[in-house]
Design goal:
Blueprint lengths: L1 H9 L8 H13 L4 H23 L13 H15 L5 H21 L16 H30 L9 H10 L8 H8 L1 H21 L1
Helix pairs in contact: 1-6, 2-3, 3-4, 3-5, 3-6, 4-5, 5-6, 6-9, 8-9
Length: about 220
């Protein structure tokens, strides 16, 4: 979850409304030990909320009314398909597997949640902190990549000034990390063929450089 939180924090200037999700991340982390089922509920809420946001931002035909009585599995696939339309990096297999993760989180929440469904006591099924940690890790990884792709698409629409020539240091970094002897430069191939992925990796690279400069 820390990586997802850092990603949101990094883009708050462009997307200040996403700070709402940081409060849910904090709640998930704070309840992991004492109330793990609440952490799992928070994970499900994050998946649903971020998917709804992606759909509303990328599909102008959708409104809030379209989300009544929608389960997690009804939201994750449409959101990822919208990202795939704008990003060749997303594969059909990735969409299917991501939907399976989201469904697993939703199923746990429905069976053991405390907030959305009131429970008679004593509760028959309770999760432990280890299960909550695994759910949080899966959710964090899934949403980090999903949200990074969304940010890249939105920022391109707002300001398309990311060019290959302006990022020489990053290009050299990629080429040293991925040498292609006798073939085109890896960085150039990534920029030309998978432009959204290039922008995501560039954002991560610039963030790491900024962190190193602050620590030095």
């Amino acid at each position: 979850m820390d990586s997802l939180n850092e990603l949101i924090n990094r883009h708050l200037n462009d997307f200040p409304e996403f700070s709402y999700y940081q409060s849910i991340i904090k709640k998930a982390k704070n309840n992991k030990a004492q109330h793990p089922d609440i952490s799992i509920e928070c994970c499900n809420s994050l998946i649903q909320g971020i998917c709804k946001t992606i759909i509303l931002r990328l599909d102008s035909s959708k409104t809030e009314k379209d989300f009544k009585r929608k389960d997690t599995q009804d939201l994750i696939k449409p959101a990822l398909k919208l990202l795939r339309v704008n990003d060749d990096v997303f594969e059909n297999d990735f969409i299917t597997r991501s939907a399976s993760i989201a469904l697993a989180v939703s199923t746990l929440r429905n069976a053991r949640g405390d907030i959305s469904h009131g429970r008679a006591v004593p509760k028959k099924l309770e999760s432990d902190r280890n299960l909550a940690r695994v759910v949080m890790e899966m959710t964090g990884s899934l949403l980090r990549y999903t949200l990074a792709s969304f940010y890249a698409i939105e920022l391109v629409d707002r300001e398309d000034d990311i060019t290959y020539e302006k990022n020489e240091e990053f290009n050299n970094y990629l080429d040293e990390l991925n040498p292609l002897n006798g073939k085109p430069l890896y960085s150039l191939a990534l920029y030309q063929q998978y432009n959204e992925d290039y922008k995501i990796q560039l954002s991560d690279y610039l963030y790491e450089v900024e962190q190193d400069e602050e620590e030095s």
